[in-house]
What does this fold into?
Amino acid sequence: MPKNVGCVAASLMALGCLALAAQQRDLKPIGVEDLLSASTDPARWLTVGGNLSGQRHTSASQITPKNVASLSPRWVFQTEVPGFLGRGLETTPLAADGVLYVTGNVNQAWALDARTGRPIWSYKRALPDNFAASVCCGPVNRGFAMLGDRLFLGTLDGHLVALERKTGAVAWDVEVGTLKDANPITMAPLVVRNNMVIVGVAGSDFATRGYIDAYDARTGARLWRFHTIPLPGEPGGETWPNRDVAARGGGGLWITGTYDPDLDIVYFGIGNPNPRYYGKDREGDNLYTCALVALDAATGALRWHFQFTPHDLHDWDAAQVPILGEVPIGGSVRKVVMVANRNSFFYTLDRATGRLLVGRPFTDNTNWAKELDGRGRPIVLDQVGTPEKCLQEQHGGTTLAPPSFDPQRRLFFVTAHETCATYESRPPTPPIVLGRRVPDGGPRRVPGREQFAALRAIDPATGARLWEHRYRPYPSDIPLDLTGGILSTSTGLVFTGDNDGWFYAFDSQTGKELWKFQVGAQVWGTAPISYMLDGRQWVVTTAGLTITAFSLTENAPSAR
It folds into this structure.
């Protein structure tokens, strides 16, 4: 049963409890208009991407390249979350009215005092003992959505739960998917107009059929469903050989999409087909896997799609954040959606039509396809690779670490991977059972070849790489641990972390390292946030199973 723990005398002083209770009474309801204007409000971080465009950019201006060297840790919150498969927290905290809202890996959540890290309330939903067998790559959760006086949480057992912001009490709880069908929820939900909460189910590594749902934020009633794998007779159904194969074709979702209120379109990147590496029984492009779908927010109807990797054989799904922005291209400023895709190509697309405007590799290792044709389809050279001309391994050119877009400088920042592997494809052993994992081969790293991750800055108008910071390389016999996502700031900083436990600040124009701090655990799978509180700018990051908050020391140089 769900469990809520309020202000507990054993852990908090009585006066502290009273202060926190008073703080909770002052919480202001969050409207959709607040979400839409979030990018101009430095005091809040209201969505997983900072705003509904997913830019992960803050307008807070107290921390600058001149004073960032004075940044220091102020508090640390240690979650009560067991580690699974070496993965730490991948959550993005939300910040509003002096409170942080944080989710944990196994159906847990907390409200924290944003000044001290002191817990205000906690929530936990029980899971069956064997739940990890139905969750692809380790239990994780990537955060809340917020609207009105409520928070919205997806759970590993496939539920969407609405919690009261002030207490953590459950307002409603609906079943979106089940563990039996391998339909956990790991993404943060997305709130859009008309009191709508949108969420998708993960599970592409299992025999399943993905979907995106919309729910009424007030009641939990389901409003629409979009299946990411079309059946015969549906648009796109001709890209699958038959109904049985399509019904287990994958197409899960595990990264939050974005929203354009003017077009009333939501954008989601869709996961890989299933089986991942064996494609002979699923001939065709296999829509809408490895694609970006643009859905009518009111109805869930497909407006357009763009498939990055037709008939994928490498687990290079499209579950990367589709960032919305405005970019000068061809003599005019275009409203675009930008994606640094797992297949190692960077794309700038027209936001209304999905038309390709820019398509260019952002990694050096693109031996599978060096260029795109006029429609944006990759011109495939090799699907298997050789030791001499190897391919990126299954994590591709980038994966779950969220990128950032600086709308002032019009720079796109991404964590890129350079790896070297060959691929083996083998038929799955029958029968293929719905809801079960499907082993079918995979990549093998080439011995003796160095692999590394790098922070890269890209010009989205051309796809050109402007600068990079390379992290420590790893030999081929050690897995490339994934590095952190990115926060950019209005003052020209880029914050991120690496798999050696370093948390950095870089100059966004040049890539010069300006500051770093050892947080004691791997920073990966999520990105920092920033908010203003009591005249002070805070930067908060996860590291392993902890959350650390930084601000300037009192004697730091002026922001001017």
Summary: The radius of gyration is 22 Å.
